[in-house]
Amino acid sequence: MLGKLLDQLQAVGRSGTAAIEAIGRGTLLLKNSLFWGGPGSAGFYDLLKQIYSVGVRSLIIIVVAGFFVGMVLGLQGYNILIDFGSEAALGTMVSLTLLRELGPVVTALLFAGRAGSALTAEIGLMKATEQLSAMEMMGVDPFKRVITPRLWAGIISMPILALLFSTVGIWGGAFVAVDMLGIDDGAYWGNMQASVEFYEDVVKGIIKSVAFGVVVTWIAVYQGYDSVPTSEGIGKATTQTVVISSLAVLGLDFVLTAVMLGGV
Amino acid sequence: MSVSQPYVSVRGMSFSRGDRLIYNNMDVDFPRGKVTAIMGPSGTGKTTLLRLIGGQLLPDSGTIMVDGHNVPTLPRKELFDLRRKKMGMLFQTGALFTDLNVFDNVAFPLRVHTDLPESMIRDLVLMKLEAVGLRGARNLSPAELSGGMARRVALARSIAMDPEIIMYDEPFTGLDPISMGMIVKLIRGLNEALGLTSLLVSHDVEESCAIADYLCLLSDGRVIGFGTPEELINEGNDEVRQFLRGEPDGPVPFHYPADDYRSDILAGVN
Ligand SMILES: Nc1ncnc2c1ncn2[C@@H]1O[C@H](COP(=O)(O)OP(=O)(O)OP(=O)(O)O)[C@@H](O)[C@H]1O
Ligand SMILES: [Mg+2]
């Protein structure tokens, strides 16, 4: 009885130390790979290549999702606002919701599923097939060669994708509101222009998505680099990437929102 | 540094994986400019030894000198410099970069480490590929290669930077007799033409005896025999002769360490 309890206590302790160790290893990885320079460091071309595979290849999912989310916002917002007779504010509502919240957050979640998991699987497979070891033995630092360009590609792509998401979403909202529900064209765009502020709404949204870019890509490359190099291990690491980075994005979103609004 | 001094010199080296002691206070020297075949039962730690020499694993204690540098204590940057300038390694699986084709795989170290113009890189790559008989396969991707072809491309890549020491991890497995003969010739040729030090992990007794100047037999975390093939075959102790003749029974264990077989089986009954 007592033995069993002790075993359970030990298990809790072990998972605690394992988590702390993982954070330590992750921090070391970030420290070793955030900056350029070092043996066999990746070049500008490698960065472009990664921006292509991480960012450009996520375009379609971001655009399609943004359009649908915008349309839903338009529809839901219209039904709420019409009760108060303030459907003219729909443009404001759609654009603020997207720029401040849904753009950065949904983009980050989609990015984690689309690009983050692919990054983890790719790096995990490179590890399993000893490509990373082979690089080391050639005197090329895999941190600088493999991790650095992928990390930066994620950090650069995320805010651009989020802005694109919001832009397309606003169009989607306009499509529903103006073309389908018959809200006045000028009211939708005019009120939006009058109330959206560049710093308060756009810049703060961009800051959020840069933070999400760092977190999601960092988790993805770390999970790949730290994965157990077997098919099972890589599968698990890929799932972990999506789960952990989604939760991290949502949690971080609350913190950032609280700090930026200054309300808490 | 005198010519007679060993290129790799291991002293008092211990290394363990979990509870399992893989090397226990081991001493071994690999002579400069010679081909030394490292042999031993599967799982004794031959690959591990190559990784220790390459600095990818750190020993628990002891020194591993490579051309006068103690690898385990080298700072990261100097370790990478040492690898770039002096070491080449052929991995058991080939370890080709799957996102690059054959040509770019061989060109990779040259492009990363040198400022050579593309025309010269092309010439060098084609020379290395010609040496392994795969000049015609330069545009294939690694996924389109057979296992033996992949190994040959990997070999071409590991000699691209003209290292001073090459460590081959089982270069012969999965090769047809013709490619095998060619690789044997290539390894010897590199050795004689460039004075390379070669460490060769292999299970193939016949091939190793034919190609190697020295044999190094490992078992149970120690060196059980070191010498020229003739010396070992004629004068080696029981363990050495058992291994070289491929006899299943003898002092060298065939089994991974385990509990007594009888009690293990009976434990399932109760
Ligand atoms: N990543 C690892 N984690 C834990 N143990 C390992 C790891 N890699 C190898 N080992 C253990 O270390 C021992 C030596 O492995 P190594 O790969 O060096 O053997 P080897 O002599 O090259 O065998 P083979 O001839 O089959 O290639 C093995 O018993 C193995 O169980
Ligand atoms: Mg091995």
Notes on the structure:
The complex is a heterodimer of chains A (about 260) and B (about 270). Chain A is mostly helical. Chain A has one domain. Chain A has nine helices and no strands. In chain A, helix 3 packs antiparallel against helix 4 (about 90-130), helix 3 (about 60-80) packs parallel to helix 6 and helix 4 runs parallel beside helix 8 (about 200-225). The termini of chain A are far apart. The mean pLDDT of chain A is about 90. Chain B has about 270 residues and is an alpha/beta fold. Chain B has one domain: Rossmann fold (3-Layer(aba) Sandwich), CATH 3.40.50. Helices cover about 40% and strands about 20% of the residues of chain B. Chain B is built from ten helices and ten strands. Chain B has helices spanning about 45-55, 75-85, 100-115, 120-130, 145-160, 175-195, 205-210, 230-235, 240-245, 260-270, and strands spanning about 10-15, 20-30, 35-40, 60-65, 70, 85-90, 165-170, 195-200, 215-220, 220-225. In chain B, the strands form two sheets. Chain B has a six-stranded mixed beta sheet, sandwiched between helices. A four-stranded antiparallel beta sheet of chain B has the order 2-1-4-5, with no helix packed on it. In chain B, helix 3 runs parallel beside helix 5 and helix 4 (about 120-130) packs across helix 5 (about 145-160). The radius of gyration of chain B is 20 Å and the shape is globular. The N and C termini of chain B lie far apart (about 65 Å). The model of chain B has no long low-confidence stretch (mean pLDDT about 85). The chains are: A mainly alpha (about 260), B alpha/beta (about 270). The interface between A and B is medium-sized, with 17 and 27 residues. The complex binds adenosine-5'-triphosphate and magnesium ion. The site of adenosine-5'-triphosphate has 9 residues of chain B, from helix 1.
